[in-house]
Amino acid sequence: MHTRRTVSRRAFLAGVAASGASLASSGKASAAGRSAPASERITLAAIGVGSRGRSNLLHFLEQDDVQVVAICDCFRDRRETAKAMVDEHYGNTDCVTYRRHEDVLGRDDIDAVAIATGDRWHAVLSALAAEAGKDIYCEKPFCLTVSEGRALVNTLAQYGTVWQCGTQRRSNATFGRVVNAIHKGMIGNLKAITTSLGGWGGDGIAVPEPEPDPDEFDYDRWLGQAPWAPYSPLRVRLWRNRWDTGAGVIPDMGAHYFDFAQWAHDSEDTGPLTYRGTGVWPDGGFAEVPFTVDVEAQYADGVRLVMQCGKCKEVHFQGDEGWINCTDEGVLTAEPASILRERAASQVSWTFMGGHVRNFLECMRTRRRTVSHPEVAHRAHTIAHCANICLRLGREVQWDPAAERFVGDDDANNLLSRTMRAPWRI
Question: Under CATH, which architecture does the 7-170+355-373 domain have?
């Protein structure tokens, strides 16, 4: 077992004064350490470099006090593509590629990892990285069950790990402006929060095929903690549509929007008490998650949290004296309109990640908790998992946020955890 290694041992204390850059109201973040020498840079490895992982990688490459030194992925073509990005940025070929995460976590010269694998790997890899003394930027959903999320929160606390969930709207000026307006009482008493999660789909029939060459794609490692199943391209491409490897639309977008809702509702250390709703499942085929959902959760103070699918991705906050709506593109509308006239209306899209990355890096230096720290992320993800359990059981469920158990409901509580395939654990 590794002891906790703080990144300050590599001259980070000298960099603290230079790391004061934060989210600017214009939607851009200035990078600290513009002239940071190589010896004072945070060394980072990217684990999981599909489309989302490569997007995250670009944001880390923009930071002049970061040096990306390693790439890890089960797919050889992804490893090569990401390495080419890094090499082109730095003008050298120093970045090393790995198929096995153990080789990355075993390097003492790596300070942090950015994890953007499939969902089933997020918590397991975060725990392994924490044990290895790395700080972690981890994509969402960061867990597949409530118990998995709580276990990771405890593990990260044990190792003193700086961990940031990839719910980047937390560091977005537009979303922050909405929260400030609600906290100031500009729409009166908050009554309801409606989250529009967007559409979902991708059905089909899985046909087992021979396992691929591990040099091209390591399927067994890709499965991770999930139970073994025959390989098929469809299983790999549509992994979000199976309970073993993903969890459907509610945790996928809800991880962002429920975090936003909890922030605005000022309930980040708790959650709703009841869940009821309906879902529409595909008729046959590969998928086993609902494609359309309509769920309502209710907090102790009566505030309703509604989860719906649809073409738009947005969150609507309804008060007894007005409302404010925020789309994922950062477009704000409100009633009364004076809410938006208080100062120039900002419009920062969900794609902006600079502030979130900077917050993570600054917290690495100061050892303070991030804005999307483990506990606040866990509570938002718990809402998503409780909603899914409600739909899977086809009935209302009662939740105790303090005990993190369903009230008098053994069938629901049995879905709070699952057995991981050996040797993976948290």
Answer: 3-Layer(aba) Sandwich (3.40)
